[in-house]
Design goal:
By secondary structure, the protein is α/β, with parallel strands linked by helices. It has 9 helices and 12 strands. Pfam families: ROK (PF00480).
């Protein structure tokens, strides 16, 4: 028997990925284009349409019942629009309407952090947990929440955007307009910036990425270690605040910075013990994400399955 499928789009500042996904989260067909992030909005949309075009010519397309989109944000789920910080050509862009016109099926839009949360809850590290925070720590810091067993995107699709919780009242101004945000301290570029400002110097290859700082920290460089400890402290404060507010019992961390492994997770778990002190948050665990680079696509598919009961919804 042929089950229904959903199409998934994962839209970010560097790539636009698409897939056809079954109700077990298996990816049956992929398509991808580079995001023309510096171009005007319609040029970006043409890249999205090219990805959709590769999916719609497949013989499998006849089984597709909905499209799920996970997009860099902010998104507005209710209005069906997106305004990704890193795609200046899209401001209040009517993405849902355009994708519906290109596909002829119902469309569900969520933020990329919420999409990754959906994937980790459905298939990954948060599976079996009714109350979870999932985070992506990379160029930015995003996230999403599962509450009472359900993905909780909120009215606009941005619930769980932990990167813009302020954890340092007198901290650096953040590009979002606030001050001392988690992202301003814990994102990859900010870990690297702080290490360089502290006197860390890259090796002969000149690599100044957070991954290079992580390597130096593993080798015992005190400035590199301190930069990761500061990032871990900011993440711990944000996670503890979230847990105190909504009683999550697990925080899942993915993204490039999480690949630092113990360099991040050891000081993070230590700092969490300092911040998550109330009895109802003391059992909170922090674990690495499991879903890898397909998380955005699988999560977008999960969202489409969940809001389109005519598809074979495995539930999220």
């Amino acid at each position: 028997m042929h089950t229904d499928l959903v199409a998934a789009l994962d839209i970010g500042g560097s790539k636009i990925a698409g897939a056809l996904v079954d109700d077990h989260g298996r990816i049956l067909l992929r398509a991808q284009r580079a995001t023309p992030a510096r171009e005007d909005g319609d040029t970006v949309m043409r890249a999205v349409e090219a990805v959709i075009g590769e999916l719609t010519v497949s013989p499998l397309w006849g089984r597709v019942r909905a499209v799920g989109i996970g997009s860099a944000g902010p998104v507005d789920r209710a209005a069906g629009t997106v305004s990704p910080v890193n795609v200046p050509g899209w401001r209040g862009y009517p993405l849902v309407e355009r994708v519906r016109a290109a596909t002829g099926v119902p469309v569900e839009l969520i933020g990329d952090g919420v999409a990754i949360t959906a994937a980790e809850h459905w298939q990954g590290a948060a599976r079996g947990h009714d109350n979870a925070l999932c985070m992506v720590v990379s160029t930015g810091v995003g996230g999403g929440l599962v509450l009472n067993g359900q993905l909780h995107p909120g009215p606009t699709g941005n619930v769980g955007h932990i990167g813009h919780i302020s954890v340092d009242l007198d901290g650096d101004p953040c590009p979002c307009g606030s001050r001392g945000c988690v992202e301003r301290i814990a994102s990859g570029p900010n870990i690297a910036r702080r290490a360089l400002e502290g006197g860390w110097r890259p090796g002969p290859d000149g690599d100044t990425s957070a991954a290079a700082v992580a390597e130096a920290a593993r080798a015992g460089d005190p400035v590199a270690v301190a930069s990761f400890q500061r990032a871990a402290q900011a993440l711990a404060a944000g996670i503890a605040a979230t847990a105190t507010l909504v009683e999550i019992d697990i925080a899942v961390i993915g993204g490039g910075v999480a690949k630092a492994g113990d360099v991040l997770f050891t000081p993070l778990r230590r700092a969490l013990a300092d911040y998550a002190t109330l009895s109802f948050v003391q059992r909170l665990t922090v674990v690495p994400a499991l879903m890898g680079t397909d998380a955005g696509l699988v999560g977008a598919a999960a969202a489409a399955l969940n809001v389109n009961p005519s598809a074979t919804a495995a539930g999220v």
